[in-house]
Write a structure and sequence with these properties.
single chain; alpha/beta; TIM Barrel; 2 domains; 5-stranded parallel β-sheet; 14 helices; elongated; disordered C terminus
Length: 441
Amino acid sequence: MLYIAADTITPRLTYTLDWIFREQLGMDYTCLPSDKTDGLSGKALLNYSSRQMPGAVNIRPQGILYQSDTREQPVTYHRWKHTAVIFYNQPGAPIPFDLFGAVFFMLSRYEEYLSGARDKHGRYPASRSVATAYSFLKEPVADLWVWHLGRLLQKQFGLEPRERQFTFLPTFDIDTAYNYLDKPLWKHMLGGIRDIAKGKVGQAVLRYKVCRGRAEDPYDNFRWMEDIHHQYGFKPTYFWLLSDRRSSFDTNNDPDSERMQHLLQRYRDTVAYGIHPSYDSHRDPGVLRQEIQLLEQYAAPVAKSRQHYIRFTLPDTYRTLIAQGITEDYSMGYADSNGFRAGTSNPFPWFDLRDNKRTDLLVYPFVFMEATSIFYEKQSPDRAFEELERLYWAIRKTNSLMITVFHNYTLGTAGEYKGWRQHYLRLLDLATGNFAPKPIL
């Protein structure tokens, strides 16, 4: 048993300790006031208070966990055990920073409540984050802090951290199931004229062949996706965009069409389903409810969600999801840069800073989205895979969960996405250990 002494036991502290010790390290603990530690001599004691305790592991509080409001925090950066740390406040100590406060700062997305910075889609940009400012967006810092803490407790008190196994979860956003199929004749006519006007005669010919059943739709690779994941032993999750109000942002096929209904029916037993709320659905809970109900015809109840365009604001979007019965969100990542938005690749319960309480919504961070590499970072498939491989090895240091985001169209036969299918297969090889091993911490 680990005993933790604290100046004050608050909702923020309890939330953070539960995630670190019970959910990550697999250790039980008891938290007690720092003036009630008599009789703990010789026990495993972690001191999280303003005074030093001989024989204990001492972590000095920065203050964020003893507050109940949201205010500017003095983020003091340093390096510790080859890892970036914030709230550095105890030079020379075995743990020279407020590890608990730093974990809470990252998981709660504290900085996003304070900054008004937003891009054209209303999203908090990676470029304004503390992680980018101090160049640790590509490091799973919270996971590394917890890993090192577990080893310190093992060395000092003989406490055994839980053995972890690396896990890979492939996920897909189905924004547009078909590029040519399942669209009205007038769209094909306009599209064909546009293709020819731009000199894309081959594309116009392909459009014609697909519509006449003489060629496969370049986005329709669902059977290949099913076969390849079965071969590698993975069960992916598909997030379906089912808007009935098509726009330049919501380009999905008609969810009421016979072809789409057949597609949704076809894979519901071999793939996990989640909702991909339409671009403006966060402004209208009724629209979100309608989209969820449509998906529930094929997979009920709908518990998983990932925001279209990774478009969310805290706390509003998560509160809306909770009100609609969503229990798992997969939006925690940046659209404009791959990496660790919350400093972890492991799931964590969302803490509502405005209400200052833990919720039942479980957040599953993703670390890589191919659309980010293509449209924001302007990377070739080769360069993108190099980054993906680095993120993989960063996660393997702590044997954590790795979630990636791909789209069906990038793994199809469309010429502009040539090379992505090959690299996706390399990712599956990597995730199953078929690459040459590299050293872990």
